[in-house]
Amino acid sequence: MIHEEYLGEVCFRKSPNQFIMKRREPVKHIMTENVLSVKEEDKLRDVVSLFKKHSFRHVPVMKGNEISGIISSTDINRLTFGTLFENQDGADEAVLEMLTVPQVMTSKPEVVSVETSIKEVAEIFATKGFHALPVVEDKELKGIVTTTDVIKYMLEQY
Fold it and tell me: What's the pLDDT at 8?
């Protein structure tokens, strides 16, 4: 038999596989802070270099101080041949030169607040098919949260 107690914001669940899960833990506890971003006027090849250099897969796109989009390595990979055919670097470079960041990014991405619960973020990922969300406070970019962050958090619960 499972016994659950709700004390404030924390759920204590007692069962053969005991765990303690914070019901309203904010996303700021698992997000990546000091996130790098790109500008709309940046070159796509520079975005690719950023992905390779830092080994991440999503980056917010800024227009001035506002988040105007998000671009992923998957967005870039859809445009290039390098992963499908050998010796296609020239073709990939031509494609990256022809297109702009605004043409490739997801415009007006959904954003979440630093106080949005991890549960709410997981629901957004599950229902809307996103893999990353910019995290803001008073419209200012504070970080990014990904499906990987949520999965790692869930694994820590068990």
Answer: 43
